[in-house]
């Protein structure tokens, strides 16, 4: 037991830094502690985040504040119907002076990339993100170029006004570790926004609270969080249940199982826990699994957020918590 505690010690030591980052981001995004904590945990797990919400709720501010707080580079890509893959990853640029070509890296070469309104781009442009998100590299003119590490994509899509959009295919949805919704602020928080942003936006005063090297250590510490055999079976049972549920046509893949474990370990690490507890698994399972399943009912949209989350919660209610 002593050896296990020693191995898991970094999980506790990283919690003060993680919570300092969360508090720093909350100077910009008030009243959204859970979403900020989950987004940070996804970054710690080297996972990508899909933010699905109406405009104006702070999705861009969340990405910028996270990047600023950990001292990482940030780029924003506005996805539109005429966006080309080269607008994302870059490509060769002709120099008329000497007739040569030089590779121009695209905006995807940053630690944190905001893919704004990702479902408004055509499938060809959307697919340009696949290699970046899965492999952490870009192939340009036959050359494989590594992306900065850590590399996290925060993609947004608007559930309203779906005209002129291209829904993300299941294969690309599966690349996102979690799907989040910020939601509207409560009355007190929204009234406070008027005062806090009366003369300047808080993002302009935000300062880093750690270095990229410290954040790398934080991410490395998450690997020391222990998943017991009983917890591994618990997570596998949850995912397996999505494949047999009558309301689902397709359940989550093994990537979903591994994603659930990664997110649970990262969130446990952010909170200073040495072991993954069942409560953490139950907490993050809807955010990790709901976008990875497909509903069986033809009259329900395949990516209905509320419907799929309800199915996952129903599955969780039927699972026995390991002792």
TrEMBL record:
Residues 241-307 form the ChlI/MoxR AAA lid domain. InterPro entries: ATPase_AAA-3, CbbQ/NirQ/NorQ/GpvN, ChlI/MoxR_AAA_lid, P-loop_NTPase. Gene3D superfamilies: Magnesium chelatase subunit I, C-Terminal domain, P-loop containing nucleotide triphosphate hydrolases. SUPFAM superfamilies: P-loop containing nucleoside triphosphate hydrolases (SSF52540). One of its GO terms (molecular function) is ATP hydrolysis activity. Transmembrane segments: none annotated. Residues 48-178 form the ATPase AAA-3 domain. It comes from the Bacteria. PANTHER family: METHANOL DEHYDROGENASE REGULATOR, MOXR FAMILY PROTEIN. This is Recombination factor protein RarA.
């Amino acid at each position: 037991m002593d050896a296990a505690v020693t191995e898991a010690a970094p999980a506790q030591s990283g919690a003060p830094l993680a919570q300092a980052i969360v508090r720093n981001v909350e100077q910009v995004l008030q009243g959204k502690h859970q979403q900020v904590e989950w987004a940070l945990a996804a970054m710690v797990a080297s996972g990508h985040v899909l933010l699905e919400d109406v405009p104006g709720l702070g999705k861009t501010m969340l990405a910028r504040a996270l990047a600023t707080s950990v001292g990482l580079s940030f780029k924003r890509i506005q996805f539109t119907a005429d966006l080309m893959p080269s607008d994302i990853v870059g490509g060769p640029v002709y120099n008329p002076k000497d007739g040569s070509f030089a590779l121009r890296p695209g905006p995807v070469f940053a630690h944190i990339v905001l893919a704004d309104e990702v479902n408004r781009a055509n499938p060809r442009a959307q697919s340009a993100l696949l290699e970046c998100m899965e492999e952490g590299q870009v192939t340009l003119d036959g050359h494989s170029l590594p992306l900065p590490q850590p590399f996290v994509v925060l993609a947004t899509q608007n559930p309203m006004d779906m005209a002129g959009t291209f829904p993300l295919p299941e294969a690309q949805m599966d690349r996102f570790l979690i799907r989040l919704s910020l939601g509207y602020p409560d009355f007190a928080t929204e009234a406070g926004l008027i005062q806090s942003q009366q003369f300047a936006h808080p993002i302009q005063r935000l300062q880093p609270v750690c270095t990229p090297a410290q954040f790398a250590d934080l991410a490395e510490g998450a690997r020391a969080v222990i998943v017991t055999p009983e917890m591994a079976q618990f997570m596998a049972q949850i995912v397996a249940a999505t494949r047999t549920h009558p309301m689902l046509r397709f359940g989550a893949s093994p990537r979903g199982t591994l994603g659930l474990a990664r997110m649970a370990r990262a969130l446990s690490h952010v909170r200073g826990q040495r072991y993954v507890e069942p409560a953490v698994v139950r907490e993050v399972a809807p955010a990790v699994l709901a976008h990875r399943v497909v509903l069986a009912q033809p009259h329900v949209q395949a990516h209905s957020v509320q419907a799929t989350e309800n199915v996952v919660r129903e599955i969780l209610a039927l699972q026995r918590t390991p002792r």
